[in-house]
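Troubleshooting: if your tokenizer reports a length mismatch, compare your output against this known-good record of 146 residues.
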Amino acid sequence: MNLLLQRTTKTDQSTEGKLFVGTRFQCYTLEPVYREQANMPVSAWKVFGSTAIPVGTYAVEVTYFYRDQYYSPLLDNVPGFSGVRIHVVNYPKDTEGCILVGTQVGQDEVLNSKVAFDALMKQIDAARQNNEPIQITVEDDCVTQV
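Known-good structure output:
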């Protein structure tokens, strides 16, 4: 299963995007502020707790999210980050680098996060049932800065 996150809008509070399963739109995303600088190590631009992860492709596994007490996707081997998940919440203050999902997006928020998450997990669980590897590619296609 291939997930694709295309970042669409950057603000001084968050990074908004769209998540696709294959080529099909699945939901909207929200991440912390995008700070990546080309040809610079993560340590040079990362602000702990409030930075979007680097562009790239990452393996995804589903593990138990002890903080919130449910299973959620975990991105493996994200340079300079650990514990990056796709999970349920609505605002950039609720994430320290994770990818939040929603059925709608507003400025610096996603809405109906649980609904979007549950729909995404059905897709992921089906892939897992078929023993398909799961990966996510994160692209920075932002053309809009607010």
